[in-house]
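BUG: 3D viewer hangs when loading the predicted structure for this chain

Environment: internal workstation, default settings.
Expected: structure renders.
Actual: progress bar stalls at 90%.

Input used:
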Amino acid sequence: MPCEYRAAAPVIKYSESLKDTQKIKAGESLVLSVNIVGTPTPKTSWWFKGTEIKSGLDVSVEGDVVTFSRLMVKNTTGDVTGKYKVVAENSVGSDSAEFDVIILGQFTIVSFNHLVVYWTFLAGSTEYRHTLIFAARCDA
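Structure tokens produced before the viewer hung:
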């Protein structure tokens, strides 16, 4: 009996625990792993703040090309807090999944003419979030 080829859109599956916000202590590694099925073999990409993530110094995107993909960010800091997205695409269709990540115990500084400092930390099982805003003032 000959094998029958059936095309199938990608499907991304992952641990139930990844459905909750991932809370990582500053300096630890963030690891997001998914399983992917689809025929033909899907192309997989990871995204953060609208930019595709590529492997680099503290970031690696790994997988076995066929069924598995993993994003790892080492030495996390507050600037990696946010929503991560994995996308799997083939000629039949696509699937995606999003993961929320918060880095705890780390300052994040944003803005140009004023300073906004956000930080989150754990005390026992209680999570505390703080924000300070410092406005720059120049008198001419």
